[in-house]
Every structure is written in C-alpha cells, then in structure tokens.
Amino acid sequence: MSEPKGYKVFYADLVTASKEFAAQGRAYKALMPEAGPACPRGGDNVIDKMLAVTLQALGEMHTVLAEAMSSHSWKLQNVHDKYLEVEAKTTTELGIMTDLVNSQAPVN
Questions:
Q1: Is-contact 49 70, C-beta < 8 A?
Q2: Rounded-to-integer distance, Cα 40 and Cα 71, Å
Q3: Is residue 9's pLDDT more than 80?
Q4: Domain ranges of the chain
Q5: Helix, strand, coil: what percent of the chain each, to 5?
Q6: For residue 4, how many C-alpha atoms fall within 13 Å in the half-sphere facing its CB?
Q7: What are the Cα distances from residue 23, in Å, to 60, 106, 107?
Q8: Residue 41 in 3-state DSSP?
Q9: Could you read off the pLDDT of 93-107 as tens digits, one per residue?
Q10: By C-alpha distance, which of 26, 3, 31, 11 is closest to 76?
Q11: Helix 11-29 and helix 45-103: axis angle, to 10°?
Q12: Are 58 and 37 spatial neighbours (Cβ–Cβ below 8 Å)?
C-alpha cells in the first residue's frame, strides 16, 4: 500500500529543532563580545580607527546572526503550536460532522 500524498508533521521534531536553534543561537552569541573582538593597535591613528570600526561592525553582524538563529527557534515553536491547534480543531469538527451524519434518520 502506498503512502498517502500530502504532508506529515512530526511534532517532536519541530520542538527538538526549536530547542536546538535556541541553544545554538545562545552558544554562537557567546563566542564574541557584542562590540566585536578586542582591537589591537596598528601603530597609526587612521589604521587604528579603521580597524576599530571594522571590528565593531563584525561584532554587530555576529550579534544579528545569533539573533536570527534564535528567531528561527521561535518560528519553529510557533509552527508546532499552530499545527497542533489546527489538527485539534479539524479533529473536533470532523467528529461533530460525523455525529451529525450518523444521527440523521435514513432517507427513503
């Protein structure tokens, strides 16, 4: 017998992925200070300033990437919750419809 066409939702996998994205986002964020790595002196004020700005931008991009990973965690959890909500609602509605159909008098 072949598998029915459509989608199968693995609720536990969505929760596991959500938790993993959250953990990895926190771990990645902890790798670098928000202001970027410490700035070494280059021996010239112009070089020092350019290096400081570049490293600060690197730190900001690092923070944005870590926050994006955490954001995906929330999105996966939301998908999990919505799938459960819709499945419960659909199951309830189908049960009501089945009860209505079964309670009808036979048509002659």
A1: no
A2: 33
A3: no
A4: 11-80
A5: 70, 0, 30
A6: 3
A7: 20, 58, 60
A8: coil
A9: 777 777 667 776 565
A10: 11
A11: 170
A12: yes
pLDDT in tens, 61-95: 999 999 999 999 999 999 989 988 888 888 887 77
Q: Which residue has the tokens 């929760």?
A: 15
Hey, is 84 helix, strand or coil?
Answer: helix
Residue 14 to residues 67, 95, 103, Cα–Cα distance (Å): 19, 27, 39
Global pTM exceeds 0.85: no
Question: What amino acid occupies position 108?
Answer: N
pLDDT at residue 1, as a whole number: 47
Q: Which tokens in the block code for residue 27?
A: 């771990």
Structure tokens at 86: 């819709």
Q: Any residues with CB less than 8 A from the CB of 45 and at least 6 apart, and which?
A: none
Mean pLDDT of 16-20: 94
Residues near 18 by beta carbon (within 8 Å), at least 6 away in sequence? 73, 74, 76, 77, 80
